[in-house]
Amino acid sequence: MRISFDLDEVLFVDPEKFETEDAPPFPLSRIFPERLRKGTIRLIHTLQEEGFEVWVYTSSFRSEVYIRSLFRAYGITFSQIVNSPRHLKEVQRDRPTPLPQKVPNFYHISLHIDDEDVIHQYGRQMGFNTLKVCEPDDEWVEKVLAKAHEIRDRESKK
Hints:
5-stranded parallel sheet
């Protein structure tokens, strides 16, 4: 089962408002100024240990190389990364009508974690599962794991 995460305000958070993982050692902390929400490392590793395929799906224009390198500094790897250029090339293509900035079911993603209400509305309309994560929440890791298990169990009964 595939799970994807948005970056900004989900995995990357403002350290003035959120608890964060320790920054990578210098000079990586200067190269990669983004800070990870506390619990991200444990969550991603747990999901992968449980057999989930973990992706990034972001509307950011950060390059795949940058995203992979940043997370490698924290010991995290992803199965796939969909950024805005990839989404535009593969999903939007030459369609005249604009599609939502994220369409997880195009990539057979079973659960997408995002902070934006509009993505959750599109999920209901287009038939993909989402979980909203945005506010500081000490139980966010457990909520993601519970939702992932719920969807995996439901999919395994089909």
